[in-house]
Structure formats: structure tokens, C-alpha cells
Design goal:
Order of helices and strands: HHHHEE
Structural class: mainly alpha
Oligomer: single chain
Number of strands: 2
Strand content: under 5%
Helix content: over 70%
Distance between the termini: 91 Å
């Protein structure tokens, strides 16, 4: 068999193996997995917002931890909404989660240093 025919045969085999994977349907809003994931996403978002409220009166370390957790929760919920919703509801919920995740990332960048809260500068008495 010539090199050209072997290459063509190999490509045909690879294409045949990849086609079934590509043809698998993406779960939609009515898929049982999506219903479960959407329920989980909503619950996770609600719990994360409660943690944010609780941390608001805490110290900087507590706020940074809550912000990190909320950013992560929003990114995960957004991925579920992208996969399982459609139409205006999808657009609205994905935008909401992306905006909240970006807000948290910005707060973390400006207020929390390298995984730890930024140090509080203390004034030293002039001597």
C-alpha cells in the first residue's frame, strides 16, 4: 500500500472514531442532568451570597475568603447556565454570573495580596 493510501486510510479511521463523539447531543434545559445542575447552581449562588453577607462585617481575611468563594461559585454557575439554558434566561443569568465573578476578581486583586489579605498599614508614632 502506498504512503498516500495509508495516510488516507488512517485519516478515515480517525474521522470515523471522532464522528460519534462529535454527534453526541449537548444536554439541554429538559435533560435530567441539567435540571439537577441548575438546581445545584441556584443553591450554590444563594449560599455564596449568604457567606458574602456574613463576611461583610468580618475582618479582611474573612472578606477575601468569601470573595474567592463567590468568584468560584459564579464561574461554576455560569458554566452550568451556558450549557443548560437558552434564550433570554441564558443571556441574563450568564451575564449576571460573569459580572459578579469579575467584580469579585477585581476586589480580590485590589484588596487581597497573593492569597492573603493585604497588610493594614499602621501609623508609627513619630519619635
Amino acid at each position: 500500500m502506498s504512503l498516500f493510501r495509508r495516510g488516507a486510510a488512517a485519516l478515515a479511521i480517525i474521522a470515523g472514531l471522532a464522528a460519534p463523539a462529535a454527534a453526541q447531543p449537548v444536554p439541554g434545559p429538559n435533560a435530567p442532568q441539567c435540571q439537577r445542575d441548575l438546581f445545584f447552581a441556584e443553591g450554590t449562588m444563594r449560599a455564596s451570597r449568604y457567606k458574602l453577607n456574613d463576611a461583610a462585617s468580618g475582618d479582611q481575611a474573612a472578606r477575601c475568603a468569601a470573595w474567592r468563594g463567590h468568584e468560584d461559585a459564579m464561574r461554576k454557575a455560569g458554566a452550568i447556565f451556558r450549557r443548560c439554558l437558552n434564550g433570554a434566561e441564558r443571556t441574563e443569568k450568564v451575564a449576571l454570573t460573569e459580572r459578579e465573578a469579575q467584580d469579585m476578581a477585581s476586589a480580590i486583586r485590589t484588596q487581597c495580596a497573593a492569597g492573603r489579605p493585604a497588610p493594614v498599614e499602621r501609623l508609627r508614632p513619630q519619635g
